[in-house]
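Before going further, learn to read the protein records used in this course. Taken together, the tokens spell out the fold as the letters spell out the chain. A record is reproduced here so that you can trace the correspondence yourselves:

***
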Amino acid sequence: MEDDLPQKKRGILEHRPLMVFLWAVLPIIAVFGVTIMRPSPSSLELIGNQSILELGLTQIVSVIIMLILPAILITYVYKRYVFEFLKLLNPPKLSHIALGALIILSANFFLNYLMELNTIIPLPDGLKVKFQGLQELTSEAQAFFLKFSGLSEFLIVFLTLAIFPAIAEEIYFRGLLIGVLNDMKIGAFHAIFISSILFAMMHFQFYYILPLLFMGGILGYVYYRTKNLWVSIFMHLLNNGLIVLLTLSNQNKLTQVDLEANPPLYISAIGIIVFIISVYYFHQLTKSNKLKKV
């Protein structure tokens, strides 16, 4: 596609995809390393006396500063035309959205089995204690947010846990990283796998690493096949937002869903069958699509 756009100004690092990749990846590795090495804060230190509104706004600003703004800056320096490179210009197809929703919702039925596999991965005692502390911190923070009450707290929690993470993480890990890796011509599988590893690392949840890799792989696959970041953003938003919506529904006595309980085996079996069928039809529907160099 480069020859089709001769009048467009090129980015400073237009022909340096490896340099751009390192620019995008090294901060993630550095943050991961520092987090592993330093003592984990307690939930009291993290949350303190903040309200849901205050902590939510802090989280939103952090996501913007750490992921959204860097992704835009790196893309601009690399290619200049940010929205085109990140595949945000065109609206998604309704068929892609519908199948994407089925895929991401039914994929959740694999997660309990992946978490069981996660528990048998051996770890040194020092790392085991560290990762357990980070896992508990993340769980406590999420539990704090899900104690929201009233419309204003619901909205800030939905923005914090669903909307901003979906936009920021898809822009950075799918739009930017897979786009750059595609320019490096390393192949679809490797591009999706590398971006999924970095996506999982950024969550600092080792005991959820296999589910994160699985979900990251699904989102990367859908982005690669559709060439449209809005589809993976919608899927990510749906997956994260469902927990918030079910919590609201439980609070208002509309449902009584136990969000921590495992579904019955027959429900899981149905979900897995729906997943396989949805992925098959999605693959057939997007057979002619291929992520091209911009």
